[in-house]
Amino acid sequence: MKAFGYARAADPADAVARFRPGTMYLGGGTNLVDLMRLGVAEPEALVDVSRLPLSGIEPEGDGLRVGAAVRNSDLATHPLVRERYPMLARAVLAGASGQVRNMATVAGNLLQRTRCPYFQDVSKPCNKRRPGSGCPAIAGDHANLAVLGHSPACVATHPSDLAVALVALEARVHVTGPGGTRVVPMPGLHRLPGDEPQRDTVLEPGELVTAVTLPAPPPGASLYRKVRERASFAFALVSIAAVLDVAPGGTVAGCRIALGGVAHVPWRAERAERVLRGAPAGEEAFLRAAEAELEGAEPLPRNAYKVPLARNLIVRTLLELTP
Amino acid sequence: MEITLEVNGVPHTVVVDPRISLLDLLRERLELTGSKKGCDHGQCGACTVLIDGRRALSCLALAVAQEGSEITTVEGLAGDGQLHPLQAAFLEHDALQCGYCTPGQLCSAVGMLAERGPSAVTEELTGEPELTAAEIRERMSGNLCRCGAYPNIVTAIAAVAR
Ligand SMILES: Cc1cc2nc3c(=O)[nH]c(=O)nc-3n(C[C@H](O)[C@H](O)[C@H](O)COP(=O)(O)OP(=O)(O)OC[C@H]3O[C@@H](n4cnc5c(N)ncnc54)[C@H](O)[C@@H]3O)c2cc1C
Ligand code: SF4
Ligand code: FES
Ligand code: FES
Which of A48, A143, A199, A262 is the most buried (most CB within 10 A)? Predict the structure, then answer.
């Protein structure tokens, strides 16, 4: 590991003031420390933001404000989250292990990097790690990489479960940086790879995430479902966060669908949502919606399984949510 | 950089390179070799310790970030010549073979039994679930055992949870 300096920030303003090119913010370290050990991340300095006074969860209007330094386990077990945003609690509980969730922060979870095997191996080329060096995943091991929205430069997926639920809940990410403070809506924090796969998100250098706010929970029933290679402690092959509100006449009054494991971003399934709104809730409409969404899929030779998997997951989950 | 932290109730002031993990500090500087290095990537749980009472992975924790923390390792679980109830249960139920994963299993189980709230397998999100075998398995899924001693590990933890 390359030598680096370390400082614990006193408050958000102090963290931002300490930022220089080459500095990285340190949350729980569960992703960053690993990437430093692998040689993938080589910060010159770490500014520790894990103990900033950003660890509260409080009601705000009809919604909720979650501090950026809240640990994943505290988010999942908070009474207001369990009662009002069960899908969010479920998504967090579906990720990693008890130990990792105790360490991992909300901001760190959203900003964790892809688990693409080439990205994590510095002996291999990778456009995300070394822009312009190529993408060996396209002709190589892409079994768990993207089927939607990828580019010839990068086919990585975003690994977070939490982010998928936050996209379906239309959360807002509050940031402060050298250029001032701003609010980034989700979806919209993460970006598609295009020809700049080195940029996972729209955040600018030095921007610090301070909080995530949730609007009032959308009406309807919700679920988070995750398909993986083993029943626990594994990243998603495909996951879904879904909310379905069925009117008394049996038509879909409202719905939200977000998919994990299929793209460089937590994927909001807008095409499926458009098909569903006003349609009679039932298998026929659910299948049409899933197919509309996945029409745009461009699977690679070894991840084509994700397309029927995502389709079946959408249909099954919506059926389960139908009263 | 100089940091002060408490390990198993004993205060230590040490000068550390920012690169070293809490695990390496414990094992190589403080000669507490109970915590094990299985993977050094957060994937196996062998390095689990309690940081301020909560279970955490010492391989992914930077030592320099532990200023002011209270750490408990497997060496600190027994008190006054008395095994911790989980240690006794692991012996009684034969919850180990080679023993490499055991310190991590023990620290993880101590932390887990102090945690409240649901897990991924809990049906009712808002209640306090009973610690069934399925709950214990899910909550301990961050601790791998190459010897496959899982059935007895679950039995031992269940005996203490009751
Ligand atoms: C074995 C293993 C299994 C896992 N399985 C899953 C899984 O199934 N599902 C899942 O979702 N996750 C999983 N994870 C990932 C885990 O959730 C993330 O590593 C964790 O959420 C990252 O949070 P952190 O606070 O430790 O971030 P860090 O590692 O500290 O930081 C991650 C990134 O965020 C940046 N950062 C941190 N805080 C801020 C801030 N406030 N503002 C701006 N930038 C910031 C850092 O600079 C860094 O780039 C797993 C991890 C491991 C080790
Ligand atoms: S898919 Fe993206 S992260 Fe993986 S090797 Fe290609 S460029 Fe790198
Ligand atoms: S050594 Fe820390 S999790 Fe494996
Ligand atoms: S007893 Fe050998 S690894 Fe668990």
Answer: A262
